[in-house]
Automatic annotation (TrEMBL):
It holds the Pfam family ADH_N. Belongs to the zinc-containing alcohol dehydrogenase family. PANTHER family: ALCOHOL DEHYDROGENASE-RELATED, L-THREONINE 3-DEHYDROGENASE. The keyword Metal-binding applies. The keyword Oxidoreductase applies. This is Alcohol dehydrogenase catalytic domain-containing protein. Its cofactor is Zn(2+). SUPFAM superfamilies: GroES-like, NAD(P)-binding Rossmann-fold domains. Residues 10-340 form the Enoyl reductase (ER) domain. PROSITE patterns: ADH_ZINC. Coiled coil: none annotated. Keywords: Metal-binding, Oxidoreductase, Zinc.
Length: 341
């Protein structure tokens, strides 16, 4: 098969012919139909993820067609169109037994701990536990846009923060996951304030349902616009500044959801814990979403309440993945880029 291979961190990916993946007895081999290019892939390419060993193939926001299943797989068959969370469970540890596969103690992450979907084929583990069927009415490109960004934003707002109609929601960072959060929160009836330094991204957030955009004096502006602070705030970027601003802009008993990865020199923000205590704020970590929550999200997509396909800004071929991953460091994307092999 062809794959975009990383031979060294931070160096251009090379398009190579490599061995086809082998199907495990409990796994599946999937033909990649579409896969998102995500800032998490950039972190991996930069060497921020110690689980990656070289050479490596990234990519984790995939939709594909099953070509082969192992002898122990009973719930899926060749021809099924599927997606998968970026965090695949083992099925044995306590979190997995409780249905929380996204925090599996021995998780497998395509594109990180194993080779991923920047390729024509990808092997996925524990198929019966981890795979999710893609509805016929959802195109493969749009299914790939669910990726880790849309589904993580869905989990942040609906599973963790439990956003309610009429609440104020602040979204810090209007890349793919931030714009997904804007769309999801607005569809839930919340009043959304988008935060970004790029006016084009703020305009896109307004088109997706934000009632206001903020680019400077972030905390003071949000407190003024909301009459006291946001009920829910998401750091959708992952930086010291956006994390601290997200916590600081909350009203009393507000909920902060950390969605963006804090890695490299941004790994240790000084969170104002005195404010967290005195205002009884909730700080919520979000590590993807368990398979058991996909049904609610997919029903919302099928009903038209949310339309993740609107987040897709462009599609590229496998030969364009390397350049696209590298450009993530410049925040050059407007919305979601999807690779179609």
């Amino acid at each position: 098969m062809r794959a975009a291979v990383m031979q060294s961190f931070g160096s251009p990916l090379s398009l190579e012919r490599v061995d086809d993946p082998v199907c495990a007895p409990d796994g599946a081999v999937v033909k990649v139909l579409a896969t998102g290019v995500c800032r998490s892939d950039w972190h991996g390419w930069m060497g921020h993820d110690p689980s990656i060993t070289l050479p490596h193939v990234g990519g984790h926001e995939l939709c594909g067609e099953i070509l082969e299943v192992g002898s122990e797989v009973h719930g899926f068959a060749p021809g099924d169109r599927v997606t998968v969370p970026f965090c695949c469970g083992c099925g044995v540890c306590e979190p997995c037994r409780l249905g929380e596969t996204q925090v599996c103690e021995r998780d497998v992450q395509p594109g990180f701990t194993i080779w991923g979907s920047f390729a024509e084929l990808v092997a996925l583990p524990k198929a019966d536990l981890n795979l999710v069927r893609v509805p016929a009415e959802l195109s493969s490109v749009h299914a790939a846009s669910l990726g880790c960004r849309f589904m993580t934003a869905w989990a942040a707002l609906h599973v963790h923060a439990r956003v309610r109609a009429g609440e104020w929601v602040a979204v810090h960072g209007c890349g793919g996951v931030g714009l997904a959060a804007v769309m999801i929160a607005a569809a839930a009836g919340a009043q959304v304030i988008a935060v970004d330094i790029d006016e084009r991204k703020l305009q896109r957030a307004r088109e997706l349902g934000a009632v206001a955009g903020v680019s400077g004096q972030v905390v003071a502006s949000i407190v003024e616009l909301t009459g006291g602070g946001a009920h829910v705030s998401l750091d959708a970027l992952g930086s010291v500044t956006t994390c601290v601003n997200s916590v600081s802009c909350l009203r009393r008993r507000g909920r902060h959801a950390q969605v963006g990865l804090l890695l490299g020199d941004q790994a240790a923000p000084q969170v104002p814990m005195g404010r967290v205590i005195s205002r009884e704020l909730q700080v919520l970590g979000v590590h993807g979403m368990a398979v058991r929550h996909y049904d609610g999200m997919l029903r919302a997509v099928a009903s038209g309440a949310v339309q993740p396909g609107e987040l897709v800004a462009k599609t590229i071929g496998l030969d364009g993945v390397g350049e696209e991953v590298a450009s993530m460091g410049r925040f050059a994307q407007d919305g979601v880029t999807v690779m179609v092999p």
